[in-house]
Task: inverse folding
C-alpha cells in the first residue's frame, strides 16, 4: 500500500549532502548520491561512534522525534543532540541551523531526490496515480505521519517554520516535479496538486472528518489521481 | 470578486438558532431562518441595549476577533463578553458553551444556510465554479480571512477546536452540500472538494508559497472549478 516506509528503523540516507545556504539556490543541482564532505566546525567530536556516518542518521531520527513531540518552537539543536547522543556542535556541523535540521527532517519523509524521479519517470498517464499513492502512503505510515503532522502544525503557527517549509521543502520538492512537467505554469500546477494532498491530510488525519477519515486509501487515490493527472499533464 | 462580504460592519445573522446539542444530530433539520428562541439561563441582563437583537451580532463579532487574535485555546467566554460589552451570562444564553460560540463565529464567515442553496441551486454544470469562487472570495476578504486562519490554526493544534470544526461546521456545511448531490458517496465527494479548498488556503495564505500566493484568484478558480465539478457531479 505504501510507496515507501521511511519511518521504520534508522532514518535512511536522503541523498542530500549537508547544505548551509539559505537562498533559493541552496540544494538545487545537488547530485542525488553526493557523499557528504563535512567541513570541520565547532568542537571536534571524540569518537567514531559519535561522529561517523551513523551519527547523521541518528541526528535526523532524533530531530524527527523532537519536532514531532515538541513542535518547531520548542525543539532545539541542543535537545536533538542530546536525544541522538552527540555533541550539539555535530548537529551544526552536519546541518547548520535549527531551520536546516528541520528541513532535513522533513525531507527524510519525502526523499525528493529519489522519489520525484520515480513518480515522474514512469508512463506519463499514470503520474497522477503514482503521486497520489505515494503521498497517501507517506501519511498512512504512522512513523512518517507524526513528524509530518508536527511540521504542518508548526508551519501554521510559527512563521519561522512556515518559512522553512516554503523555502526549503516545498521549493525543492515542487521544483523537482515542476521541472519534469510539460504544461504552462508548471510550478503553479505542482502547487495546486500539493494543496489538494495537504488538504486531504488535514481533513483525514487531523480534523478526522468522516467518511474521509475512515475511507480506504485506494478510494481516495481513485478519486484524486485524475485531478493530479489533469493539473500535471493537461494544458 | 468576493461572493459576499461577511466581515464588513456588524456580523450578519446566520439564520442558525442557538443549539446546545453536541451529538451528530445537532443542527441537522434546523430551518434556515428559524428565529432564535433563547431559553433564560444565567443572570438576566439589565438593559435592552445589552440584551437586544444587536447584542447577539456584537457577541459574534467580538468572538471572531477574540478567536482570531488569541486562538481557540486562549479565547474565553468572559473575554468575548467583555469585548462585546455584555454580561458573560448573555453569551451563554445565546450560544451555550465556548465551543458553540466558536462554531457560530466560524459560520458567520460561511453562512451555510444562505450560501449553500445559492451554490447548489444554479445550473448544475456551474456548481464547481460557483463553489471555488465563493471559497476564494471568503479567503480573499481580509475581514473573514483572519478568523478563518485562527480557526484552522486552532483546529490543527487543539483537539477541542478540531472537534468543533468536525462536529459543527464541516458537518453542517458539507451535509448541506452533500444532500443536494446526485453522486455515489456524496459526503466523501463533498469532503474531497473541501480538502482541496482548505489546502489551497493553507499554501496560499499561510505558507505563502509562490506563485500560488500571488496568483490571480480567477486563475485559481479556472483550474480548480473542473476538479470540484467532477467531485460533485460525476459518478
Result:
Amino acid at each position: 500500500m505504501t510507496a515507501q516506509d521511511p519511518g521504520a528503523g534508522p532514518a535512511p540516507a536522503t541523498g542530500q549532502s549537508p547544505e548551509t545556504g539559505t537562498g533559493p539556490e541552496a540544494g538545487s543541482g545537488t547530485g542525488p548520491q553526493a557523499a557528504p564532505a563535512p567541513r570541520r566546525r565547532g568542537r571536534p567530536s571524540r569518537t567514531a561512534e559519535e561522529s561517523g556516518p551513523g551519527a547523521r542518521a541518528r541526528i535526523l531520527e532524533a530531530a524527527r522525534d523532537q519536532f514531532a513531540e515538541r513542535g518547531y518552537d520548542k525543539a532545539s539543536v541542543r535537545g536533538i543532540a542530546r536525544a541522538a547522543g552527540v555533541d550539539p556542535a555535530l548537529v551544526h556541523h552536519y546541518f547548520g541551523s535549527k531551520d536546516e535540521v528541520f528541513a532535513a527532517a522533513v525531507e527524510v519523509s519525502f526523499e525528493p531526490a529519489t522519489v520525484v524521479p520515480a513518480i515522474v519517470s514512469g508512463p506519463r498517464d499514470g503520474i497522477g496515480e503514482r503521486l497520489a499513492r505515494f503521498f497517501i502512503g507517506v501519511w498512512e505510515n504512522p512513523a512518517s505521519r507524526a513528524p509530518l503532522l508536527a511540521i504542518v502544525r508548526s508551519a501554521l503557527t510559527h512563521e519561522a517554520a512556515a518559512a522553512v517549509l516554503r523555502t526549503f521543502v516545498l521549493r525543492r520538492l515542487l521544483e523537482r516535479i515542476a521541472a519534469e512537467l510539460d504544461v504552462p505554469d508548471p510550478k503553479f500546477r505542482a502547487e495546486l496538486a500539493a494543496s489538494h494532498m495537504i488538504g486531504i491530510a488535514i481533513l483525514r488525519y487531523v480534523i478526522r472528518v468522516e467518511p474521509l477519515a475512515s475511507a480506504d486509501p485506494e478510494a481516495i487515490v481513485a478519486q484524486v489521481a485524475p485531478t493530479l493527472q489533469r493539473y500535471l499533464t493537461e494544458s
About this structure: Residues 20 and 100 of chain A are 8 Å apart (CA to CA). Chain A is about 65% helix and 0% strand.
